[in-house]
Specification:
The structure is a homodimer of 209-residue chains.
Chain A lengths: L6 H19 L6 H8 L3 H8 L2 H11 L6 H4 L4 H6 L2 H17 L2 H10 L5 H21 L5 H4 L2 H20 L3 E2 L2 E2 L3 H25 L1
Antiparallel strand pairs in A: 1-2
Helix pairs in contact in A: 1-2, 1-3, 1-8, 4-9, 7-11, 7-12, 8-9
Chain A binds a DNA duplex (30 and 30 nucleotides) through helix 2 and helix 3.
Chain lengths: 209, 209
DNA sequence: ACTTTAGGTCACTCTCAGGTGACATGTCAA
DNA sequence: TTGACATGTCACCTGAGAGTGACCTAAAGT
């Protein structure tokens, strides 16, 4: 097959292959040779156009349609969220994030990669997500004085980290503390626990304030 | 150097090397060649004595001093735990587990490995830990009726998964939602959030029971 | 028409991990 | 003493991934 001499097109094919491998095989399979095979492009071109794996991943992260947007997470518009009471707003955001993450294999693989060190993607993506996360939290952390009584950041971190870990595990071990992480019923239980924890921590706050 | 013809001794050296690599370099570096180098034993002997990597890891998991014992987690004896009120007992157990995990690199690497699939250690170790986890929960889940109002398993799973994820991340990205996972101060905040969540979920329960 | 250049192909090298066959030698039993 | 076997050593093969140099050729400018 003769190449079509379309640099931009070729670059897109390469980037697309990265996304495809990420989604279907996981970040462990991201490598020059695999990407070349998957995209049907000679690996030399990857070096020529991007410089190397690191730079390719950088480009991928920038272009990135691999991560849920804030709008995916909270489908109702911001105004709506802001009109909800804090506990409900928190639940909407946390559950929204949970559900998006759960159905988005690319995002999961990104997070898995960030957990493995010596991974170039990690540094690229972590920054972006950090910012988004803090933005989401800022939607909540408005009520004056709330911050003094509840460490919203720490609570949100602990809870979101919790279901993140469980989602990542669901693909491998598949079970945690007896919960079946591939069963919709058990995920229902987890979401309910999330609900209950959020609600009670805010109620508890009200009771003493 | 001439070998000393001590099969059991050699096997121990090999097992020890597995633990050492796990602790100091992480599960990614577990491999036949590395283990052979680290232990100063020819890799052929690994195949001869254990069969292969899979079986070696199996043996390592069985022998395993890589995981905190129940007693490490809850230093006071069981009676003591059982005499505490449910919220306090939960906090003791969760914080105990958190702290043990935090200072135990081998355990962290085991968990990291379990998150990566195609990892032999995962299947071996997950079972053991599952059992321990359920045992710990059973220490709590005694009060009649409690189970109907609070899904102790799901709550414990979510919270322990939460700090597990944060601990694993601390070694790589080092930051989550703006929290610095290498700062003792920020860990203080996380532990406090854990406390607050547990206390309030049980209080909330009391209020309506 | 002729040169230049950029897109694309091919064929290598290097390194490192897993895995195995052949051999050397200490030890123990007959 | 001698043979069998267990313990340990060495050299080698395979496969896969990263990376590079040399080449071919379509297209665009002169």
């Amino acid at each position: 097959m003769i190449g079509i001499r379309d640099r931009e097109g070729t670059k897109k094919k390469i980037l697309k292959a990265v996304g495809h491998i990420l989604k279907t095989r996981g970040f462990q399979d991201i490598g020059i040779n695999n990407i070349a095979r998957e995209s049907g492009v000679d690996k030399v071109l990857i070096y020529r156009y991007f410089g190397g794996l690191q730079e390719l991943l950088h480009a991928f992260a920038e272009q990135g349609d691999y991560w849920p947007t804030t709008n995916d997470i909270a489908p109702e518009d911001d105004k709506n969220i802001k009109n909800l009471a804090i506990p409900e707003a928190s639940i909407v955001l946390l559950r929204g994030y949970l559900r998006e993450l759960k159905k988005n294999p690319s995002a999961q693989e990104i997070l898995r990669g960030e957990l493995m060190s010596k991974n170039e993607l990690a540094l690229e993506t972590a920054g972006t997500r950090e910012k988004q996360g803090r933005d989401l939290i800022n939607l909540l952390d408005l009520e004056p004085g709330l911050r003094d009584r509840i460490d919203v950041t720490a609570v949100a971190a602990l809870l979101s980290a919790g279901f993140t870990y469980l989602i990542l595990r669901s693909k491998t071990s598949g079970t945690y503390l007896g919960l079946d992480l591939n069963s919709e019923d058990d995920w229902e239980r987890i979401e309910n626990a999330l609900d209950q924890l959020v609600r009670s921590v805010f109620d508890h706050d009200l009771k003493f304030s």
